């Protein structure tokens, strides 16, 4: 590298590095955690009672039930393929996970915790730091879609079988 630094003008070196970085791969290091904070006050009971697998189509436009389902798991399809989606009650809300996902994609929907205890928090994680840019963009789109859907649900803009608690 010292040879290059001594004999190639720095502008040329920057162009070479940019070219190599762009061509080496579309895989880039990213954060493995993603968040959305929805400024809507709701109750843990409402999250757990309303956000069921039966109501999956209300929670996201990007994933849908394609086969068997019960209260804790469903066969789903969506932007990343077909997976078993699990749903678990946790302190403060729910955890969802794509069981067969090679990235161990999981997300929680909770309320009552920092950084904003009066908001609905979506926290999504994956298990690999290096990802293709397109996958990261799909995660961001999924979270934006889910945020919009949850905002519609908890602001009362969607008719639900379960009534939202007043509190």
Compose a concise summary of this entry:
With 167 residues, the chain is an alpha+beta fold. The protein has five helices and nine strands.
Number of strands: 9
Largest sheet: 7 strands, antiparallel
The amount of beta strand, in percent, is: 25-35%
- Overall shape: globular
Report the uncertain regions: 1-25
Query: Helical stretch count?
Result: 5
**Main sheet: which strands, in order across?**
2-8-7-6-5-4-3
How would you name the oligomeric state of the polypeptide chains in this document? single chain
Indicate the CATH architecture: 2-Layer Sandwich
Q: What's the alpha carbon Rg, rounded to whole Å? A: 21 Å
Classify the secondary structure makeup into a structural class: alpha+beta
Helix content: 25-40%
* Mean pLDDT, all residues: 83
Number of domains: 1
Overall description:
Strand 4 and strand 5 (81-90) form a beta hairpin. This protein is an alpha+beta fold and 167 residues long. The model is unreliable at 1-25 (pLDDT under 50). The protein has helices at 2-7, 10-24, 44-50, 56-59, 133-154; strands at residues 27-29, 33-38, 63-69, 73-78, 81-90, 93-98, 106-111, 120-125, 130-132. It starts with a helix and ends in a 13-residue tail after the last helix. It has 5 helices and 9 strands; from the N terminus they run H-H-E-E-H-H-E-E-E-E-E-E-E-H. The chain has one domain (27-154): Alpha-D-Glucose-1,6-Bisphosphate, Chain A, domain 4. The longest helix has 22 residues, at 133-154. The strands form 2 sheets. It has a 7-stranded antiparallel beta sheet. A two-stranded antiparallel ribbon has the order 1-9.
């Amino acid at each position: 590298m010292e040879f290059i630094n001594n004999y190639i003008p720095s502008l040329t070196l920057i162009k070479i590095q940019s070219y190599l970085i762009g061509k080496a791969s579309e895989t880039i290091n990213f954060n493995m955690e993603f968040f959305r904070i929805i400024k809507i006050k709701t109750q843990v009971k409402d999250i757990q009672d309303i956000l069921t697998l039966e109501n999956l189509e209300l929670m996201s436009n990007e994933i849908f039930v394609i086969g068997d389902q019960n209260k804790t798991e469903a066969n789903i399809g969506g932007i990343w393929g077909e997976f078993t989606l699990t749903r678990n009650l946790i302190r403060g809300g729910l955890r969802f996970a794509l069981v067969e996902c090679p990235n161990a994609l999981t997300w929680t929907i909770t309320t009552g915790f920092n950084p904003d205890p009066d908001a609905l928090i979506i926290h999504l994680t994956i298990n690999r730091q290096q990802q293709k840019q397109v996958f990261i963009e799909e995660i961001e789109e999924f979270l934006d879609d889910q945020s919009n859907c949850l905002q519609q649900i908890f602001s009362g803009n969607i008719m639900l079988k379960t009534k939202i608690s007043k509190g």
